[in-house]
Each structure stands twice: as structure tokens, then as C-alpha cells.
UniProtKB/TrEMBL annotation:
CDD domains: GT13_GLCNAC-TI (cd02514). Its cofactor is Mn(2+). This is Alpha-1,3-mannosyl-glycoprotein 2-beta-N-acetylglucosaminyltransferase. Belongs to the glycosyltransferase 13 family. Pathway: Protein modification; protein glycosylation. Initiates complex N-linked carbohydrate formation. Essential for the conversion of high-mannose to hybrid and complex N-glycans. The keyword Translocase does not apply. It comes from the Eukaryota. Gene3D superfamilies: N-Acetylglucosaminyltransferase I, Domain 2, Spore Coat Polysaccharide Biosynthesis Protein SpsA, Chain A. Its main location: Golgi.
Amino acid sequence: MPKFLCDVRVLLVVAAIAFIYLQLRLFATQSEYAERIAAAVEAENLCTSQMRSLIDQISMQQGRIVALEEQKKLQDLECGQLRTLVQELERKGLQRLIDKVQEPVAAVVIMACNRADYLERTIKSVLKYQSSVALKYPLFVSQDGADPSVRSKALSYDQLAYMQHLDNEPVKTERPGELIAYYKIARHYKWALDELFYKNNFSRVIILEDDMEIAPDFFDYFEAAAALLDNDKSIMAVSSWNDNGQKQFVHDPYTLYRSDFFPGLGWMLSKSIWDELSPKWPKAYWDDWLRLKENHKGRQFIRPEVCRTYNFGEHGSSFGQFFKQYLEPIKLNDVRVDWKSIDLSFLREDKYPRHFADMVKNAKPVYGADVVLKAYNIDGDVRIQYRDQADFERIARQFGIFEEWKDGIPRTAYKGVVVFRYQTPRRIFLVASDSLRWLGID
């Protein structure tokens, strides 16, 4: 019996120990879970707080978005109103321009390449007289190539528009020894004139080069001649240049002539003529090409007796050819001629032949070898006959005028007649033998 009781007590003790151990483990587990629950509750509270903060921020951003949208609507409305106002002002400004000048008389383009110092001199000369008539003669500089000094110089003037011709296509000359420069110049001219006539839609363009100065009445002269160019289809272009315009060969700044020889060096061309020339523009030597009879098709050019441009370009693609002898002594007109008051109808095709023939017929004929001395001793106009090109060159050499011909035409000639002054108001007419019948001279 005692042994049984002892075993029971042992079992009770073991059971009590096991119970106590289980209670301890349960308490420890409960404590651990309680801590975890507390941490989870704390984390949940933190998340809730952060979520509320984010919700508040989103609400604020949404408020800002709404405010910005309202501001944008207001700005869009104001921009629309300003746009309408600007358009109205532009319309009114354009209308005032149209009321004052229906369209420009002509665009003026200065053809440039790599002579920044020359270009500056030309721009200053042009702006001296163009500023007062800028609406009638919008000014452009067209540069061939990428010379930075020329580009910088052109862009330094607010009074003009700048164009740049970049052509990297290789040049293939048609004959050995030809200068590539003449091919590049021809490409540049075609590109620039296409831009002005077709892209900018000008009806007339005056072409200058970057080594020219202009006369005080340069623009008035071209404005007066524009009507002739438009209305008389026998006129191909109007030039400001006279090849025999040296000081000793000119006298009257009011005198204008027709010529079968293209003068160039400051000339005005119409869009209708360019429509014809552009598709067949030459690869090089465009000025000589224009002097071919097949290209001007019997049409003529208006030129002044006293030049309205002066060419100071001793250094250029032609290496100063003729400069000292023919270009440097040119007389640049310094008289402000009122061209608006002068009737130029005598230059029309239906009037000019008789007008010119009468001048030649009224000149006194001079014959013999020493024509220069004989002409000098006559007070009035003088007429000298030449047989052929060689004979013309001989006589021209004695006076000192240009001897050169192009396609059978002497420089400045009209119907085979070259006219110039000789140190006095007297006119000298060098008359081709073939022209006598046309002139009505026996």
C-alpha cells in the first residue's frame, strides 16, 4: 500500500511539473503573440496615418490641378483674344501698306560670296538711299557658300534679309582650264532668282553684286523704268550700267538709250522674263549667255548714259580684268534726277527707232584716218562709219572706248551704232555700214 501511494505522489509531482511547464510555455507564447499584435496594431496605425497623409496630399494636388486647369483655360482665352488682336493689327498694318504701296517695285538682291569688306561697303551704299524707300525695295543678301565673315556681316544688318546658297555638288567644267568659280556663280544666280521670283513671289528683281556703290537716284531710275519693262515686251531688262561710262565719254545724266548688248552690273529683271530664262539657265558664264542673240530674241535693254552703279571690285573671280582701264574711271552719277517728272515714252519700241535715227542722221559725217582729231574740232555731234569688226576695233582704240564684241554686237550698240560723248557734250556715233539703210542714210 505505501508503495502505491508513493508512486501516485510521484505521478502527481510529474503532472504538476508538466502542468506548470505548459502554463509557462503558454504564458510565453501569449506574451509573444501579444507583442506581435501590439506591433501589428502600431504598424496598422502608422499605415493609416501615412495613408491619410497621402490622401490629404492627393486632395491638395487635385485642388492644384483644378486650379491650374482653370488658369490654363483663362490663359487660353486670353491668348485667343491676343491672337485675334494681333491678326487684326497685322491686317490693318498690311492694309495700310497696301494703301500706300500696292506691291514692291522690286526686290534688291546683293550677290555675295567671300568678300566681307566689299559686302559691307556695298550694303552701306545701298542703305544710304534704300532706307527711305524700303517698302518699295526690300533688300536681300544672297551668299554663295559658308564664309563665316560674310554671313556674320550680312546678319549684322536688321534692314535686310539673308539667304544662303550651299551647294556641295561637284563642278565638272565643260572645257579644260576653265575656272570652277564661273560655274558656281551661275548656280548661285539661278538659285537666288528662283528663290526671289518663285518662293517670295516678287514681280521684279534688281541684281547687284557685292562690289558696287549706287547713285542717289538709283531707285527712282528703276521705278521710272519699271513701267517700260512691264508694258514693252521688246525690253528684256533695265540696266544701271554703261560700258563706255568713263568720265570722258559721258555728259548728260538725263539721257537713256536702248541697247542690243546686255550691260549687266546692276540690272532689273521681270518675273515673266525669268520664267523663260530659268529652265535653260547656263552652267557657267551666264552674262555672256544673256548676250547671245538666240537668248534675247531681238529684245533690247535700257541703259543710262551716266552709270547709276560703280564697280569697285578690283579683286574677284575675273582677277581685275579691265578694271584699271575701263571700270575704275567710270563716272557714278551724282545728280538727283527727278525721274517721275520725265516722260520716258520715247524709249518705247514704236518710238525709239525714229528718235535714235534722227539723232544719227543729224550728226556730221567724218571720214579719213585721223577721225579723233577731226571729231574733236567739230562743235556738234559726229558720225563715223565702220566697215566690220576689225575696223570698229581700230576706231574704238583711237578713242579709248571698249573694243569688245559679243555674238556680233559691240558693247553698248543699238542696231550696230555705238554712241558716246567725247570730252564735251558732242556725241560720237560709230555706225556700221549695214546700219545706214536702216537709218535712212544714203
